[in-house]
């Protein structure tokens, strides 16, 4: 049996969704991908619960990568739903955030400690949506410190055998070696699809390992342009730059690279 030729492996927040979590400009292209049985694989900082809700809205049945590569999930006819952890658990990581705050000399607020008002203000999430984002398995998102402190914090994390990546709003504490790119490689191995071509799409520094692992990589800009950390890859020609922000740029890039070919 030959598998699909393409996988679309995509970040969600800031890439397929704008900052109000709207993906509607990509609805037609998502429908075309489904009709052509081209998998759309979310690869996101979001939790499994959040991705499952999104998959149900869009009608996706493909595997997915959660919490910045902390775990992969899928459904296989013989065994049903499965998940595979790829790094330390949230319970192992959470105390480390307070150690890092002490090392840094600055308080660091974890996403799961935010009040409802803070969650609404910082993330635009409330009620069950906020709770789904706060129930983590294998990463600790937190409000990032000022940009000047970030290199030092990354250094301190590395000294503790941990990694910190920057998403479009939150920073994320992960086990060393946990990344979206590594999770993609593990997922391909697990499903035995070494030959599949990956169209990877992302908007933030935490997407770099995904973009680097993709066969075709697309940086999706915001209304102000692409993230500065991804510019070098665009300027060197390794990454394409989508022509429009968020879902509109996502849909256009998928159309040009896969559907129109
Ligand atoms: Mg993003």
Number of strands: 11
| Helical amount | 25-40%
* The number of domains: 2
- The CATH architecture category of the largest domain equals 3-Layer(aba) Sandwich
- Highest CATH level, the class of the largest domain: Alpha Beta
CATH homologous superfamily of the largest domain, by name?
Answer: HAD superfamily/HAD-like
Outline the fold blueprint.
Elements: E1 6-10, H1 27-35, E2 40-42, H2 48-58, E3 64-66, E4 71-76, E5 80-85, H3 90-104, H4 116-123, H5 127-134, E6 140-142, H6 150-159, E7 162-166, E8 171-175, H7 180-191, E9 197-202, H8 208-213, E10 216-219, H9 228-235, E11 240-241, H10 246-259
Parallel strand pairs: 1-2, 1-9, 9-10, 10-11
Antiparallel strand pairs: 3-4, 4-5, 6-8, 7-8
Helix pairs in contact: 1-10
The structure holds magnesium ion.
Could you describe the 3D structure shown?
The protein is an alpha/beta fold and 261 residues long. It folds into two domains: 6-86 and 178-259, HAD superfamily/HAD-like (Rossmann fold, 3-Layer(aba) Sandwich), CATH 3.40.50.1000; 90-175, 2-Layer Sandwich (Threonyl-tRNA Synthetase, Chain A, domain 2). 39% of the residues lie in helices and 18% in strands. It has ten helices and eleven strands. It has helices spanning 27-35, 48-58, 90-104, 116-123, 127-134, 150-159, 180-191, 208-213, 228-235, 246-259; strands at residues 6-10, 40-42, 64-66, 71-76, 80-85, 140-142, 162-166, 171-175, 197-202, 216-219, 240-241. A five-stranded parallel sheet has the order 2-1-9-10-11, sandwiched between helices. The chain has a three-stranded antiparallel sheet with strand order 3-4-5, covered by helices on one side. The chain has a three-stranded antiparallel sheet with strand order 6-8-7. Helix 1 (27-35) runs parallel beside helix 10 (246-259). The longest helix has 15 residues, at 90-104. The chain is globular. The chain starts with 5 loop residues before the first strand and ends with a helix. 43% of the residues are buried. Bound molecules: magnesium ion. Residues 11, 13-15, 167-168, 203-204 line the site of magnesium ion.
